[in-house]
Amino acid sequence: MACITRLPQPVSEVWDWQLRGACRSMSSEVFFHPEQERGRARARRQERAKQICRQCPVMAECREHALAVEEPFGIWGGLDEQERRAILASRRRAAAAADNPPAGRAAA
């Protein structure tokens, strides 16, 4: 489950981007896998969702939202669950490296 404490405050300016999403009038089944979906069927559905995202005017906002709240399911901003986890892990490693520079070097 996504951690709601990381969600932005309920201010319309923060959420207005969602009104312009290409997915707005589509079934959530395009972006979230049904139980037992595996293999080629899942890959095809994910690719279809990512194609929609690539043409979306708010893809960047959607992606950053999903990363900020660590959304655990579905396609958000053109990224699937594994892609988001990889980006978050990379960001954490970079932050840890910045906080702990190698001996003999000061942090910038």
Give an account of the 3D structure.
Acts as a transcriptional regulator. Probably redox-responsive. The apo- but not holo-form probably binds DNA. Helices cover 45% and strands 0% of the residues. It is mainly α and 108 residues long. It has a domain at 39-99. The longest helix has 19 residues, at 81-99. The chain is globular. It starts with 11 loop residues before the first helix and ends in a 9-residue tail after the last helix.
Give average pLDDT, whole number: 89
What can be said about the biggest beta sheet? none
User: Count of helices?
Assistant: 4
Give the distance, in angstroms, between the N- and C-terminal Cα atoms: 36 Å
State the low-pLDDT regions, or none: none
The share of residues in helices is: 40-55%
Could you tell me the number of beta strands? 0
Structural class: mainly alpha
Order of helices and strands: HHHH
Q: Please state the overall shape, judged from the principal axes of the Cα atoms.
A: globular
Whole-angstrom Rg: 17 Å
